[in-house]
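Q: Give me a backbone?
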Amino acid sequence: MKIAFFGTPSFAVPSLERLLASGQRVVMVVTQPDRRRGRGQRQQYSPVKTTALAHNLPVVQPDRARNPEFNEQLSACGAELGVVVAYGQILPDHILHAPVHGIINVHASLLPRYRGAAPIQRAIIAGERETGITMIRLVREMDAGPMLARVVRSIGSDETSDVVEHALAELGADLLLSTVQTIEAGQHKEEPQDHALATLAPRLTKEDGRVDWSLPAAAIHNLIRGLHPWPHAFTFLGSSRYVVHRSDVVDAHPGTRTPGAVIAASGDALHVACGEGTTLALHALQPEGRRVLDTRAFLVGYPVPPNATFRSEPEAR
């Protein structure tokens, strides 16, 4: 079949490459417009555009998918099937129905749970023990279309979102290829989602990373790994802000401790009291504007005073 591929970040690259390696005919690649990034604000291609150009594929970058010019381009390419993998724009009805076989989507959750822009991160933050890929047909409502296939993957207790995302990108590429082949053979089946079980996974913001030390240590640990590598969990000691990169849940702390209170701060140990009598060990921190430090290096460069307490807000100077 002739396929129009919609995608932007590195998560979508394995899916595009798997289609090409299988001999599927990708007649158009649609990706987000080039963005300026970094200190020099240089214009950069998306990972999908870079991949497409390396394979000499035609690339289209509409500012808005509703653009009439883009509709004409999609019609002209003769695509029989559309494939969306983390494209980044909502497609209007006339685009959804343009290819004869419609448009399918590689979604990184076990739908109907975690519909939205950040399903991997939200699943980890919630402490889920498994996630996966669901192939769906795109409809007007966000991630609500009928399901064509799914694959399940467990989430390790210390895995961060980037590790899980990389694994799901590969699983999604395999599932996409098998789904396309099933559609091509006319053997695909569709199963409606149970909308009553739907949960949302809204886009992440930097504010999501603010650590609430009254939560149990496991919940804070899940937040830290779910927000790695962006936007990161953060906390304050005195008036200084620190990003927390790695952590671990340790034994319950003795006695009654104020959440955020430092229990141990020496050598390789930086233990902090959390809610419900639990304790979190911090293994890597990053002072504002500085490099990431392991616990030992952090305590040497930034000694923690006696009776110190990590907080959600900076203390007034």
About this structure: The domain at 2-197 is CATH 3.40.50.170 (Rossmann fold). The first helix runs from residue 13 to 21. The chain has two domains: 2-197, 206-311. The CA atoms of residues 262 and 306 lie 8 Å apart.
